[in-house]
Amino acid sequence: RTKLLLIVGVPLIIVYIATVILEYRTQRKAALDNATASLLEITGRCASIVDANFINVSKTADTLAVSSNFLNTTNPEDIFALLKANLDATPNANGITFAFEPYAFSPFLEYMAPYMGRTPEGSYLKKFIDPNENYNYLGYDWYLTPKITGKPVWTEPYFDRGVSDMLVCSY
């Protein structure tokens, strides 16, 4: 009787364990494949949303750049009003600026870069970017790269210390 149990039982147990292991591996691979497919789909949707936000912000900046050619004012408040209107029309943008070439705004003013941004509390921050306060915008990628290439570009993320004081990408 014990001999029969060993002859029949041991192989059955081995076959059972082998079947459980094979089934586990098969189910594990299927679960990983399903998780990978789901994550790729979610990532694709998130990337599409981010891409749409970048496109929206870049269109606003492109339109603002074209309209700046017709800007006929030396009143900074007019520029701030234009920046605020564009910021209001672009909820995904955190801030917007006009950074003029030296003496381009006025022959008496070397630097001129009015900035309009949002605070974390939701109010507006209005300021002039002043190169004399350790923020020489003429050397930053967001200003220099488009000037050199003649084309707008997205910058790599950077901490915008002194202006918005947050991690940003600029266009």
Q: Characteristics of this structure?
A:
single chain; 171 residues; 3-stranded antiparallel sheet; two-stranded antiparallel sheet; 5 strands; 10% strand; mainly alpha
What does this structure look like?
Helices cover 52% and strands 10% of the residues. The protein has 171 residues and is mainly α. The strands form two sheets. Strands 1-2-3 form a three-stranded antiparallel β-sheet, with helices on one face. It contains three helices and five strands; from the N terminus they run ααβββαββ. The protein is rod-shaped and about 110 Å long. The longest helix is centred in the first third of the chain and has 67 residues, at 2-68.
Give the helix/strand layout.
Elements: H1 2-68, H2 76-88, E1 95-97, E2 114-118, E3 124-128, H3 141-149, E4 158-159, E5 167-168
The largest beta-sheet arranges its strands as 1-2-3
Report the oligomer.
single chain
| Alpha-carbon distance between the two ends | 83 Å
Q: How many alpha or pi helices?
A: 3
Mean pLDDT: 89
Q: What's the order of the H and E elements?
A: HHEEEHEE
**Number of β-strand runs:** 5
In the predicted model, the low-confidence regions spanning at least 5 consecutive residues are: none
Shape: rod-shaped
Give the structure's gist in a few sentences.
By secondary structure, this protein is mainly alpha-helical. It has helices at residues 2-68, 76-88, 141-149, and strands at residues 95-97, 114-118, 124-128, 158-159, 167-168.
